[in-house]
Amino acid sequence: MPKAIYIQKGDTIDFVNETEKLIESGEIINLSTRIAIAGCDINPKETGTLHLTGIYEMPKNENETINFGKFVYLNSDGKITLETAEGKNVLAGLAVETSQGTTIKVRIQ
User: Fold this and answer.
1) Selection from 39, 75, 33 nearest residue 56 by Cα
2) Which among 20, 41, 62, 70 is least buried, having the fewest CB atoms inside 10 angstroms?
3) Is 73 exposed, middle or buried (0-12, 13-18, 19+ CB in 10 A)?
4) Beta-bridge mates of residue 59
5) How far apart are CA 14 and CA 65, in angstroms?
6) CA-CA distance, 24 to 49, in Å (whole number)?
7) Would you give the distance in Å from CA 109 to the centre of its chain?
8) CB-based contact 74:62 (threshold 8 Å)
């Protein structure tokens, strides 16, 4: 039977910034199937830390009311929305508050 070898807890991971721009601490990173949050500034072509879990306050689509417990998505404008928009919006996590304003608290997953 194949075995798994424990590496780390997995709340954070190392990430190489393959872009030509600085990734700033707290920046929302679209990983195509989920999001992560930069845990530090990551210079181009260097390695830094991404957070894969936690609760973060993020900008949201101000035209929506998002209720506690709803799955939420990151849109192409970098805002949280209820819309899945297949192929465009990526799962951000779970709303941990009800919000009608311009920000919302999200448990990323």
Assistant:
1) 39
2) 20
3) buried
4) 103
5) 35
6) 11
7) 8
8) no
Nearest to 21 by CA among 33, 38, 1: 38
Question: For the chain, what is the total number of helices (H) and then of strands (E)?
Answer: 0, 9
Tokens 């990151």 found at = 74
Q: Alpha-carbon distance 53 to 47, whole Å? A: 19
Phi/psi-derived region of residue 54, left when phi > 0, alpha when psi is between -120 and 50, beta in every other case: left
Average pLDDT for the chain = 95
Beta bridge partners of 56: 106
Q: What does the pLDDT look like over 48-88, one tens digit per residue?
A: 999 999 999 999 989 999 999 999 999 999 999 998 877 78
Rounded CA separation 42/66 (Å): 32
Burial of 95 (0-12, 13-18, 19+ CB in 10 A): buried
